[in-house]
Amino acid sequence: MRLSRHVSLETAQAPTACFSPMNAPRPWMIAETNWKQLQATRYEVAVLPWGATEAHNWHLPYATDSLQNEAMVAEAGRIAWEAGAKVAILPNIPFGVQTGQLDIPFCINMNPSTQMAVLEDVIGSLKGVGVPKLVVFNGHGGNDFRQMLRELQARHPQIHLSTVNWFHIDTGKDIFAIVGDHADERETSLIQHLHPDLVLPREAWGEGRDNLPVLKAMREKWAWAQRPWTQATNDTGSGDPQHATPEKGRLYFQRLTQKFASYLVELAAVDASLIYQAS
Hints:
This protein is of the alpha/beta class. Helix content is about 35%, strand content about 10%. The relative contact order is 0.18.
């Protein structure tokens, strides 16, 4: 049963698993659906999840950013779809900007200029078939799509472009003891919840201790430079994961997906030319 768009998102039934069986295609997941479904549906919002392939402390998989993305957008898409929003979740792009980690094996780098070219092609494909809105859902701190979307929005005024970093949706400070920014308690808890089989035993976890820059302005964070990751960290983690639990991951996942779904529902319903109104 589909829920009315007016039904509260909090009342939508939570999933018992992160992914539905592949023998039941989810119409919001473009990789699973088919031409018959697509031909009969006018999609209002496309979501492009963009992750990375990189080391995450000693204990988390290289695909952490992409695994989190895929689960979050699938669940948010389900909630939004059942609330009446026609959303299309595109396949995750697994390579991000890794220019500070080129000395770490298999941290696969995709330069911002390459990301810009990929976005140009994706936007052109969506615009060509009348999809009016695109959200770039980012799961990697090294990716920054805002400046790209400024340029691309001017080139493609027919499609509304926005981006969401999942780690900015909600910090989870009331759930987690220590909030870091890479393979920390948050990400460890999420992967414990989503893919516990891919997390090494707790005794193998690194401390996630950062090495601070000698420059005062950088320590105070009003000057910025790319961090050489093997100098800035000791185990590729940034943030102590020791207090992570699957239950914290479950609570955080539910919060993030509910919030992102609410954005998708609102975005699907709004006229993109009338987003800003006089107060």
